[in-house]
Amino acid sequence: MTVLCVRFQLPPESEAALPGLLGLLEEFTPVVEALPPDGALADLRGAERYFGRSAVELASVIRVRALALHGVDCVIGAGPGPMLARVALRDARPGVTSAVPEDAVAEFLADRPVAALPGVGTATSRTLCEYGLDTLGRVAAAPLSTLQRLIGARSGRELHEKASGVDRGRVVPNGVSLPHSRLRSSGGTPILATERPFPLDELDPDRHRRALLSAAEELGARLRALDKVCGTLTLTVRYADRTATTRTRTLREPTAHSAALTRTAYGMYEALGLQRARVRALVLRAESLAPAEQASHQLTFDPVDEKVRRVEEAADRVRAKFGPGAVIPGALAA
Questions:
Q1: CB atoms < 10 A from the CB of 44, how many?
Q2: Is the link from the previous residue into 37 a cis peptide, with omega within 30 of 0?
Q3: Are 124 and 39 in contact (CB under 8 A)?
Q4: Looking at residue 295, what is its pLDDT?
Q5: In sequence order, which ranges of 240-325 are alpha helices (DSSP H)?
Q6: Element counts in the chain: helices (H) and strands (E)
Q7: Is residue 110 classed exposed, middle or buried when 0-12, 13-18 and 19+ CB atoms within 10 A define those classes?
């Protein structure tokens, strides 16, 4: 085993704890990729050699440390690559790491439904099942040309390889993967992202703005926890008809300030001029990340802005000391 897929069992409203848990994984390996809101991939290739322990053995240590230091349990899947580790996670439970047998990968996958593969959505799964290709074993045994006719040349080739146990994926350090997306860091530059899906297609602009506020505050807290600033913010609006609109804006100065991120997100949203749009999800990405210590900060004489920054810094200190659920009296009013 080389790669772990870890899902932390975070309590509701505790997603801000993820950066600290990623730091725990980074004590074992620098090759850690966040899977918001509650998971991560960790490539332990070097750690296995350094510690003289297998990835499954190191998973037990990670689980104990997460409980002891953060009070958070986790479930862990292990595999030769990130795709297989994610599939193994489906069988994991607290206290037991689910591992893909390296000498029997095809057998491990054979009886699983096609939807068990990361990236296989409802529409693709439905199409394959209509033709009797309802398990990964049957997909692997099908002629490549058949799969390509059903779902396209590239998708068919990728699906055939994955169903056969070929895992060409890699863990992207400091990158972020979103559920049900193919988000990757651009040009090797790490990004942070968060998604706000709606339980039902949402028409209300006020609810859209509240979701953007929540997303911007999460990004700001995560950036500050990582001592990073972002220079670019990208908003993607996903609609009920499966189309999407993406807008990117370069910030006046790199920042991790939640209020500045929120203003920029609101500006991009309002510029879209949505009229009764049925929105399925909002995705906010912080890009062009850089160390906070290298960022310049333009002085402002706005006392309100300075007060918000001081409250934000105090809230970060309280969360670091007492946990992500801690609240400062009066902070929300500020």
A1: 27
A2: yes
A3: no
A4: 60
A5: 258-272, 303-322
A6: 12, 9
A7: middle
